[in-house]
Design goal:
Keywords: Aromatic hydrocarbons catabolism, Dioxygenase, Iron, Metal-binding, Oxidoreductase. The protein has about 280 residues and is α+β, with helices and mostly antiparallel strands. The protein contains five helices and 18 strands. It is globular.
């Protein structure tokens, strides 16, 4: 389908700040099923396929607990390849006595859990794009109850959960922002995303290539919500992967046209959305 590969812009690695690296590593290995690609005393890169890190954990100095009612990450979302994988995950979480939220979004079926620091994780599987309901440029999405009984029928009896499938990718990211008008300009005119769904006046969903969403934006923490402290638990940054260097240069030009901040650090390019959320532009 190509929604999460070049030439389409998509989400790469998400970088989280956590309070206790050892505690978080145990959770992300035992509950989520990641493998450690590499680690230091304060950081770890996690992988599903043994080659590419899609999640990085970092324990900052003088770390503070997660701050409520601020901008930043609402959740990051791991996209599994098949319904069987999601069904296996349901049984695994049940055996671990993990509290789970769930939803049927018409375009996808999803589970929601929180890590030990309160960072929310969505684990989901897409429905066939052929059944997504488009009305012009907008795709129909909602949150209906997930039919667990129907989902569980996709399991193979006797097979045990084996961790994250190697094909697991970072499907999307959903963000708390301070307002939507300038934020929409930043993500659409600056970064090049298309609006594919509006949820009243409080949320926007954006994508490339007519995916249901690579990025969600909402003001559910309050219009004018403040940025959290730099050393608080939450998201440090996330990657947007573009097609090539030319696409990055064009995006930088677009960001500068609308007055957005773009900085170079050690040969890497970062920008900040109007809520102060840090984004790395890479390819």
């Amino acid at each position: 389908m190509g929604f999460h590969s070049k030439p389409n812009t998509h989400i790469g690695q998400v970088r989280l700040k956590i309070e206790d690296l050892n505690r978080s590593l145990k959770y992300y290995q035992d509950v989520i099923g990641f493998e450690i690609l590499d680690r230091s005393e304060t950081t770890a890169n996690l992988t599903a396929d043994g080659k590419t890190s899609i999640l990085k954990l970092e324990q900052p100095e003088n770390v503070q607990p997660k701050q409520r009612r601020t901008t930043g990450m609402y959740h990051f979302a791991l996209l599994l390849p098949t319904k069987k994988d999601l069904a296996d995950f349901v049984i695994h979480l049940s055996e671990k006595n993990i509290q789970v939220g769930a939803g049927d979004h018409l375009v996808s079926e999803a589970l929601y859990i929180k890590d030990p620091d309160g960072n929310e994780i969505e684990i989901y599987v897409d429905r066939d794009p052929k059944v997504w309901d488009w009305n012009g440029e907008e795709v129909a999405m909602t949150t209906d109850p997930l039919n667990f009984e129907a989902l569980i029928t996709h399991r193979v009896q006797g097979e045990k959960w084996q961790g994250l499938p190697k094909e697991t990718i970072m499907g999307h990211i959903h963000l708390h922002v301070a307002e939507l008008e300038k934020t929409q300009e930043f993500y659409v005119k600056g970064l090049g995303f298309d609006i594919v769904n509006r949820f009243g006046s409080q949320a926007l969903f954006l994508s490339t290539a007519k995916y249901h969403h690579h990025i969600g934006l909402n003001t559910w923490n309050g219009v004018g919500a403040p940025k959290p402290a730099d050393n608080s638990v939450g998201m440090k940054s996330f990657e947007l992967i573009y097609n090539d260097e030319a696409a990055i240069k064009a995006t930088i030009a677009n960001l500068e046209k609308i007055g957005a901040t773009v900085v170079e650090e050690d040969g890497r390019t970062f920008t900040y959305d109007p809520s102060g959320i840090r984004i790395e532009l890479t390819y």
